[in-house]
Amino acid sequence: MSDLKNTGIAAQEGKFIIKEKPYPTPKYNEAIIKVNAVSLNRGEVRRDVNSKEEIFPGWDLSGEVIQAAEDGSGPKNNKRVVGFLSTGAWSQYVAVATNALAELPDDVSDEDASTLPVAGLTALLTLLKGEQLIGKRVLITGSTGGVGVFAIQLAKLSGAYVVALVRNEADVDFIKDFGADEVLVNSVENAEPFDLILDSVGGDELNELVKITKPFGKIISFGNSFGKPVSAFDISRLYSSSVTIYGFILFNELKHLPASEGLSKLVNLLHEKKLKTLIEKKDDWKNIQTTADNLIDRKYKGKAVLYVK
Q1: Which residues constitute the signal peptide according to the record (predicted)?
Q2: β-strands 194-199, 137-140: how paired?
Q3: In angstroms, rounded to a whole number, what is the distance separating the alpha carbons of residues 241 and 94?
Q4: How far apart are CA 261 and CA 264, in angstroms?
Q5: Which residues of 215-237 are buried (b: 16+ CB within 10 A; e: fewer)?
C-alpha cells in the first residue's frame, strides 16, 4: 500500500495548496476511506491560516470504505460512510477509526453527510447538556452558522421553545424556516430568561447571556467568534442564581463518547427527513483558497463543502 499515491490540502500561514502526502497506514481498528467530500468549519480554517508550520488539516469527511478495519469492526468494504478526524481529513485517502465512522443509506448524499461531524455533533452534544428539553426555553446564538442551523432543528425535535439570535433583520424569515419559534436581532436585551443557552459568540456578550439565564440554568460556551476575551465579568451573578457556564470542546467530549454513536443518530434523522442541512457553497477542492477566505469573511451561511477529485 505504501507505493500508492495520495494527495491532500496543506495549509501554512494563510495559504492552502493541494500536494502529495503519504498514503495512510491504518491501525488494526481503522478503515481506509476514499474521500468524496469534505466540509469546512470556520474555527478550523481560522486555526489553519495562523499555522506557522505546514499542516494537513480537516475534520469532516464522507466517502467509501476501500479497506475495512483489520479487527473486523465498523463498516465493510464498498460501504459509504461519514467520518471524523482530528486532522488530515482533506485528503484523497484517509485512515479513520471505526468508532468515528457511520454508514450512510443511499438517500443521504456525500455532501450532506460531510456537514455532520463537527457541526452536527457539536449541536447534538451541547443540547444534551440541557438534559430534558421538553417545554424548556433554549437560546442559540450564531444561529445562521453550521452548528446553529443544526441546533435549532435538534432543539425543536426535543420539544424545546427555540429562540435564535441573528445579526441581521434579513435573516429572520430564513432562520424561522429551520424551526425557530422566535428570532432576536443583534440583541438579547429584554429577552425572557432561558433554561439553556448555546453560545458560539463569546466576548462581552457572555455577560449579557448570564443576565438572561434562569436560576440553575446553563450556558454552553463552544466558541468565541467575537475574537476577544470578556472584558469584565460579574461572578456574583453565577453563584447568586446558580447559573452554570460549561466550556465545550468537541474533541474532549469525544474522548468519552464515540463519534460513531452521534453520527449514526444524525444520519438517521437525515434519512427520516427530520433534519436538513444548509450548504451555501459547493465547489471542487482545487478552489480551497477562495472558499477558505470567504468562510473566514463570513460570506457563507451554514456550511461550505468541497468535492475531492
Answers
A1: none
A2: parallel
A3: 48
A4: 5
A5: eebbbbbbbbbbeeeeeeeeeee
Cell numbers of 211, please? 443576565
Cα 175 to Cα 144, 238, 256, 299, distances in angstroms: 7, 31, 32, 16
Report the first-to-last Cα separation within the chain, whole angstroms: 20
Q: In one letter, which amino acid is 33?
A: I
Pull the grid cell for residue 181.
419559534
Q: How many CB atoms lie within 10 A of CB 175?
A: 22
Residue 104, classed as helix, strand or coil, is: coil
How many angstroms separate the Cα of 188 from the Cα of each of 100, 165, 184, 191, 302?
Answer: 37, 8, 7, 5, 22
CA angle 168, 292, 151 (to 5 degrees): 50
Q: Sketch out the chain's domains with CATH numbers.
A: 7-118+258-307 (3.90.180.10), 130-247 (3.40.50.720)
The three cell numbers of residue 91 are 485528503
Judge contact between 123 and 151, C-beta under 8 A. yes
- The residue count of the chain comes to 309
3-state secondary structure of 89: coil
Q: Which three cell numbers stand for residue 125?
A: 452534544
Tens of pLDDT along the chain (309 residues) come to: 457 899 999 999 999 999 999 999 999 999 999 999 999 998 889 888 888 999 999 999 999 999 999 999 999 999 999 999 999 999 999 999 999 999 999 999 999 999 999 999 999 999 999 999 999 999 999 999 999 999 999 999 999 999 999 988 989 998 999 999 999 998 888 899 999 999 998 877 888 899 999 999 999 999 876 556 665 667 777 778 889 999 999 999 999 999 999 999 999 999 999 999 999 999 999 999 999 999 989 889 889 999 998
Q: Whose grid coordinates read 468508532?
A: 99
Helix extents (H) in 220-301: 235-241, 250-253, 259-271, 288-296
